[in-house]
Design a protein that fits this description.
The structure is a single chain. The chain is of the alpha/beta class. It has a single domain (5-132), classed as Response regulator (Rossmann fold, 3-Layer(aba) Sandwich). The chain is built from 5 helices and 5 strands, in the order βαβαβαβαβα. A 5-stranded parallel beta sheet has the order 2-1-3-4-5, sandwiched between helices. It starts with a strand and ends in a 6-residue tail after the last helix.
């Protein structure tokens, strides 16, 4: 059995964060939540996560800054961007900066789960190669 992948959920809406944690937590995924971009960047500086799910519009440090931090600190991690302010420009910017995928609020938890499962499949496909050359995969 493969170990659970670690997911960091970043959303300044506490209720949304709790709902995402509840809907994503399983034997396959260990989910942690932080209430904003600054907290996410701080966590990413000391820990790695396989998947980061971040809202775009947050006070102080936004989701694009979180995406930049993930790309810089943990380029093997997959970032999924969520927002209530979906636009072609925001989606294009997020994807250009390395987001794995993009989903607009409101969305059904099952729709996000499909994207996360797709990211997990890609991570697990690459991970054995990483471990074979002596790295941890994180």
């Amino acid at each position: 059995m493969q170990s659970a992948l670690r997911i960091l959920v970043v959303d300044d809406e506490v209720i949304a964060c709790k709902r995402l944690k509840l809907s994503l937590s399983s034997n396959e995924y260990t989910v942690e939540c932080v209430p904003g971009g600054a907290e996410a960047v701080q966590r990413l500086e000391s820990e790695s996560f396989d998947i980061v799910v971040t809202d775009i519009c947050m006070d102080q440090v936004d989701g694009i800054a979180v995406l930049d931090a993930v790309s810089r600190l943990h380029p093997q991690s997959k970032t999924i961007v969520i927002t209530g302010y979906a636009s072609v420009e925001v989606a294009r910017e997020a994807l250009a900066k390395g987001a794995f995928d993009f989903i607009a609020k409101p969305f059904q938890p099952k729709d996000l789960r499909v994207i996360i499962d797709k990211a997990a499949k890609e991570i697990r496909r690459v991970r054995p190669k990483d471990r074979a050359d002596g790295s941890s995969g994180n």
